[in-house]
Model the fold of this input.
Amino acid sequence: MLVTAGPSSAPTSPSGTPGSSGRRRTVAVDARDVHVVLGGSAIVRGVDLVLEEGEVAALLGANGSGKSTLVRALVGAVPIASGSVTLLGHPLGRGVPWERIGYVPQRVSAATGVPATAAEVVGSGLLHGRRLWPPRHAQRRVHAALDLVGLDHHAERPVRELSGGQQQRVLIARALVREPDLLVLDEPVAGVDLPSQQAFATTLSRLAERGTTVLVVLHELGALAPLVRRAVVLRHGAVVHDGAPPRPAHDHDADEHDHVHPHDDDAGLARTPAAGLRWEP
Ligand SMILES: Nc1ncnc2c1ncn2[C@@H]1O[C@H](COP(=O)(O)OP(=O)(O)OP(=O)(O)O)[C@@H](O)[C@H]1O
Done:
């Protein structure tokens, strides 16, 4: 199921919203008028973001536009100055079912001071708050998650011996192992080779079909283009576009680039291999 509902949609409640079929859909993320202030500067300025169950949305914007800060605020990693955030029907805080949420932060190493193996790092994704021991079938789930990112053959290797891109894939597996209902990913495929990006896109699309909601920070849609139907574009911490994905452009990272382009659903011609998009009719 893929549904889009921007802030301009009919009002929703944390528990759900009636769809066109009349069936109640669960709202996975309900952020209203979110402001974040860091170091005395307003970094996120009045963002509204409502994501429904199974929706795949990309968060785009130039460097420094506030994408990471916004997703970090959504998962409670930085405090919000004002506004409200509800995740999976629960106000941000201890009541949120964090075990149902996977988060891949931006560009962190999977290697810690501890010589953990890839399987151990992924297994840590199964631990949370009150659960300090692995659930049943943990090993099977760990290996399945590593297999999804093409690294099961490295399961017993210390992560510090893996390349940067492989470490990133370990972190993706750590989020996937939870079989999350909500997945928040901050530039998950930066530094990841194209075949792995495509495998990741396939995995995400299967998760979305199953009802997982995905919010992914990207600079270019890249291999994920076929599954992203909604793009939220930030500029200076505010949403300047929320709707169909913008056309790819080579200058997306330029400060003055507005990230908003006319979109044509029949725009195969607008999507060129040079822009890094894999176009599927
Ligand atoms: N802890 C902090 N204290 C002060 N300013 C911060 C802090 N963290 C981020 N910022 C500032 O907030 C702004 C937005 O940063 P953020 O990392 O959210 O942008 P981004 O859109 O994710 O950028 P990029 O595409 O480069 O990853 C930047 O100007 C950054 O310097």
Q: What stands out?
A: The chain has a mean pLDDT of 78.
